[in-house]
Amino acid sequence: MRTLPKSTKVPPLAGAPTLRLVLDSQSFVPYYEQIASHIRALIKDERLVQGQTFYSEGEVARMLAISKMPVRQAFQKLRSEGLLVIARGKRPLVGSGKLPWNFQELRGFREAVIAGSASAGRGGGPGVEAERR
Description:
Blueprint: H1 31-44, H2 57-64, H3 68-80, E1 84-85, E2 93-94, H4 103-121, H5 128-132
Helix pairs in contact: 1-3, 2-3
């Protein structure tokens, strides 16, 4: 079990709970999975609420005395689940767990495919120049 050495203590973040995160170095579960599941549990137990500011990757890494890479992987996993909202240069925010679908992008892709196949039939699609040579 890894715990935070007293010399590398990170000051508590205003409004964020103490993580009390402990990594099991004897476990076959990777560190990033352990971190992600712990943060997921905090959100599920409503100790972290939507819109609340969370610790940065560097702060969590210092708390655990590990490199940033497993923390970054955990944050990206939580981001893909919609549980963390990460913007460059800002602290992560706790998300809702729901990922919004941007139907305009989907429609735009569909229209691009239709437009591409329609123009290919008229001789104006991509790669037409190569075929004419």
